[in-house]
Amino acid sequence: MLADLMAGAAEDADARRAVIPLAAVEAEALDQPAALDAREALRRGPNVKIIAEVKRASPSRGDLADIPDPALLASAYEEGGASAISVLTEGRKFKGSLDDLRAVRQRVSIPVLRKDFISQPYQVFEARAARADLVLLIVAGLGQTELAELYALVGELGMTALVETHSAEELDRALEIGADVIGVNARNLSTFELDPSLFGTLAPRIPDGVIKVAESAVLQPADVARYRADGADVVLVGEALVTGDPISTLTQFLAV
């Protein structure tokens, strides 16, 4: 599944590049205001912090929610206390777009994450051109040289990389490149199976000072509480918010 998602996202990026060349996107990226300080926004606090996600669909669940105005939802997330907004920009399986990201960025004043299947510099420049503050890099989908080069580019453009892992070996690879915002995804992106205990297993291996983000397998406050007890600074939540009452659910999660 991950290989298909990475390949599809790369094909779509190639199609966009055929219309808007790399040089043009790079120039647009460099012309944007400075990215917001996502590390400061996500740094550990007395309560867990939430990255709230704009998510219409997923490969495992299909359609989740009709979100005609992603900026309106993101604004509600911000008012509800989210520390950052995640925007799915993958179009084939998640039904997102860079237009969603642009709309959200114009409406909110907190950091915005481009969540996609990034494998090439063009996609990183696109993220900054759309004024993303964070970019997701998935260790399992990248070779170590690719990962290091993309991580460096994200930093050069003033953004923050959320480096996603799903095993001890992937975590070691993330630490090797100096990642200081590391996600542990309970969902195996190759099989899409969930292991809610994975964060608790890997968190002790993450050094102090690295922002720890727990991803997936969040349905209720008890799930957030478990992640927090296991050391999470931040929990990224998508499906639980968009499939229920987003603000009531967010409020309950933030109380942890």
TrEMBL record:
GO terms for molecular function: indole-3-glycerol-phosphate synthase activity; phosphoribosylanthranilate isomerase activity. Pfam families: IGPS. This is indole-3-glycerol-phosphate synthase. It catalyses: 1-(2-carboxyphenylamino)-1-deoxy-D-ribulose 5-phosphate + H(+) = (1S,2R)-1-C-(indol-3-yl)glycerol 3-phosphate + CO2 + H2O. Residues 4-245 form the Indole-3-glycerol phosphate synthase domain. It comes from Okibacterium fritillariae. The keyword Amino-acid biosynthesis applies. PROSITE patterns: IGPS. The keyword Lyase applies. It comes from the Bacteria. NCBIfam families: PRK00278.1-1.
